[in-house]
Amino acid sequence: MNLSDNINKGYSHFYNEVLRVKYVAERINQVSNVFVVFDELFRGTNVKDAYEALLSVITVFSKLNKGVFAISTHIIEASNKLSDNGSVFFKYFEANLVNEAPQCNYKIKDGLQMSGLGCTF
Predict the structure, then answer these.
(1) Which residues, 6 or more positions from 29, have their beta carbon under 8 angstroms from its beta carbon?
(2) Residue 6 DSSP class
(3) Which residues contact 51 (CB under 8 A, 6 or more apart)?
(4) What is the pLDDT of residues 51-70, one digit of tens each?
(5) CA–CA–CA angle 14, 16, 18 (5° rounding)
(6) Domain boundaries, the chain
(7) pLDDT tens, residue by residue, 15-42
(8) Which of 8, 24, 76, 121 lies at 20 to 30 Å from 101 by C-alpha?
(9) CB 18 within 8 A of CB 50
(10) What local confidence, expressed as pLDDT, does residue 94 receive?
(11) How far apart are CA 17 and CA 94, in angstroms?
(12) From CA 113, how far away is CA 92, in angstroms rounded?
């Protein structure tokens, strides 16, 4: 999703995200098998609203037997509410500091990435 504010329509980045999720949800009902990717879903709003919206979307999509939904987020607090959901799996890319520079091997691992490198730059 490459969304931005639409001043002419009065749509914020967040509202455009909501419209895109709604569009995807409507299309899911028309097909039998999907692969959906949302990268940093609800990044266009504050953390509290993003957290609540993210939980709602993941909870609803996890109940569908329609395919695979890959949703990335930096809101790891959502994992506390989703860890008991047998349809939700956590994956991450390992990143480490090597000689004071971030390094990623781009291999998907099970679990959550708990080390925050953002403040080291």
Answers:
(1) none
(2) B
(3) 75, 77, 78
(4) 999 999 999 999 999 999 99
(5) 70
(6) 1-87, 90-121
(7) 889 999 999 999 998 998 999 999 999 9
(8) 76
(9) no
(10) 86
(11) 27
(12) 6
**What spatial distance separates the first Cα and last Cα of the chain, rounded to whole Å?**
26
Contact 11, 3 (CB under 8 A): no
State the Cα–Cα distance between residues 29 and 48, nearest whole angstrom: 29
Q: State which amino acid sits at residue 21.
A: V
Contact 74, 112 (CB under 8 A): no
Q: How confident is the model at residue 11 (pLDDT cuts 50, 70, 90)?
A: confident
Token pair for residue 56? 């709602």
Half-sphere exposure of 6 (CA within 13 A, CB side): 11
